[in-house]
Recover the amino acids of this structure.
């Protein structure tokens, strides 16, 4: 059996988690949380990184920092996870979905401006599979219209666009450390605050609306409730588990990139029958996933079943949000759905995780080839 995913694990994790327990501070913002945050700031060149309990919560914080109010509109692709939209919907925003590019599965930057109305407050590009959206046009149009940019970089750790780390380009960037991601704390995330004016407010929101962070820095003599917020602070145990991986971040990244390349080279001979991932020259990706595209939904369904019968787990991905019950209730599609539905129905993801063996990759590649050998063109 070749599983689709195995959560990343390195040997130091249990040692660090034990240290967190013996340090006597496991509720969060201890030594391991600070080490993870500082690592993120160094590696993204962002002025402030805050660990959160999930990427969903990082996005919720970003929505609050954007000042989203009922009746506002937020532009994003429909091909994304529900959290991208949920974070803004819960504050009363309407979601305006734009079509994606068929090459990268990212929002089509050329369609953003025509989706803007007098109610638009933010644009949320989603960096699918660790491949960046075309951020220059997005930030340019945002600047011209006075809009915030929130990067959903859930899959974008260790990735960049024209030399800039994903998550550090917009006003806010949101990462995921879920067990399916390249680096994991089980369930967790982080928010990058790229405008220092929002740091204090972000800390207050994260700490239940209190100025507790300022108190621990000795800036106030006692902490109190000063604004709205919630509990977005992860446990030190989670941070300790993550820190062990961040210490080996380059090694983990290179191992995944090597696995991705083996898939790409092994399946290149089928490029006339399947779609392979596209990584534009302006982007550095992180091998978060390796997907292929079948001819259509019927072929994809058959391929997934064939792989399953051969002990290989290869799921499809998102059902476009605009076609879901909540998407129809809380949002609308701007313009024509030329690619979102069509391309989403073709895509399936092959097993990819830190530690996947060459033999398992070869097994998957040969199974895909076998499926197409037995199928007429």
């Amino acid at each position: 059996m070749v599983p689709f995913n195995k959560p990343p694990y390195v040997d130091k994790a249990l040692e660090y988690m034990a240290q967190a327990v013996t340090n006597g501070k496991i509720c969060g913002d201890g030594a391991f949380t600070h080490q993870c945050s500082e690592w993120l700031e160094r590696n993204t060149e962002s002025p402030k990184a805050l660990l959160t309990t999930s990427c969903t919560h990082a996005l919720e914080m970003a929505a609050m920092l954007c000042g989203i109010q009922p009746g506002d509109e937020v532009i994003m692709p429909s091909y994304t996870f529900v959290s991208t939209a949920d974070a803004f919907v819960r504050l009363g925003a309407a979601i305006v979905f734009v079509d994606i590019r068929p090459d990268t599965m990212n929002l089509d930057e050329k369609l953003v401006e025509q989706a803007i109305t007098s109610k638009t407050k933010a644009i949320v590009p989603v960096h699918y599979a660790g491949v960046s959206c075309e951020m220059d046009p997005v930030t340019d149009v945002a600047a011209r219209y006075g809009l915030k940019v929130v990067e959903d970089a859930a899959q974008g750790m260790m990735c960049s666009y024209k030399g800039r780390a994903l998550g550090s380009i917009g006003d806010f960037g949101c990462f995921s450390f879920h067990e399916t991601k390249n680096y994991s704390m089980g369930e967790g995330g982080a928010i990058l605050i790229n405008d220092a004016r929002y740091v204090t407010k972000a800390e207050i929101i994260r700490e239940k609306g209190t100025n507790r962070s300022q108190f621990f820095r000795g800036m106030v003599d006692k902490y109190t409730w000063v604004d709205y917020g919630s509990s977005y602070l992860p446990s030190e145990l989670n941070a300790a588990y993550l820190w062990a991986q961040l210490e080996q971040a380059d090694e983990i990244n290179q191992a995944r990139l090597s696995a991705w390349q083996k898939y790409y080279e092994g399946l290149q001979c089928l490029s006339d029958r399947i779609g392979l991932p596209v990584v534009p020259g302006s982007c550095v990706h992180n091998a978060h996933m390796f997907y292929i595209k079948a001819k259509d939904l019927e072929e994809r369904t058959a391929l997934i079943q064939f792989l399953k019968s051969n002990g290989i787990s290869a799921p499809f991905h998102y059902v476009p949000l605009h076609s879901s019950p909540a998407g129809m209730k809380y949002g609308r599609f701007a313009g024509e759905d030329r690619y979102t539905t069509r391309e989403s129905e073709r895509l399936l993801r092959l097993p990819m995780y830190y530690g996947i063996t060459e033999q398992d990759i070869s097994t998957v590649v040969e199974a895909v080839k076998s499926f197409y050998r037995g199928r007429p063109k």
Remarks:
- The two ends are 29 Å apart (CA to CA).
- The chain has a mean pLDDT of 97.
- The domain at 249-373 is CATH 3.90.1150.10 (Aspartate Aminotransferase, domain 1).
- Residues 249-267 form the longest helix (19 residues).
